[in-house]
Amino acid sequence: MNKVPLTVRGAQKLREELQQLKTVDRPTVIEAIATAREHGDLKENAEYHAAREQQSFIEGRIQEIEGKLSNAEIIDVAKLDTGGRVVFGATVDLADEETGDEITYQIVGEDEADIKARLISVTSPIARALIGKNIGDIATVMAPGGEKEYEILDVRYV
Fold this sequence. Notes:
CATH topology of the largest domain: Chitinase A, domain 3
CATH architecture of the largest domain: Roll
Order of helices and strands: EHHEEEEHEE
Strand content: 25-35%
Oligomer: single chain
Strand order of the largest sheet: 5-4-3-7-6
Distance between the termini: 28 Å
Number of helices: 3
CATH superfamily of the largest domain: Transcription elongation factor, GreA/GreB, C-terminal domain
Number of domains: 2
Largest sheet: 5 strands, mixed
CATH class of the largest domain: Alpha Beta
Helix content: 25-40%
Structural class: alpha/beta
Shape: elongated
């Protein structure tokens, strides 16, 4: 399987979620199943079925996170210095060529992407347009509404 890029912060968030699932959520649902079993007939016991469904979700999520972490290539962006070139993990300040509006994005792995937090996936059209560019370059992005051009104002590795 191919290695999936992940920032240090993204890997830490996944590890924290995994810890929560294994040490808090899993034992809680196991206890809920045991309690529901004590109530008798399992065929018509909604609490039991809900707890089993929750257990299935938790176990699936644990496997998913463990798989992602085992296939992750964790990249410490703070140790990168590519001379102002945009690479995975970089935080990029942009200016919209048309409106002059400024915006900042960090290019992260697919699992970390959160547009509201200005974290964009490395596979997104804007990230693909930015990768390899330098400060002062113009990146042309194919957006649903047509082409948009952004000037790269600054690149940071934090």
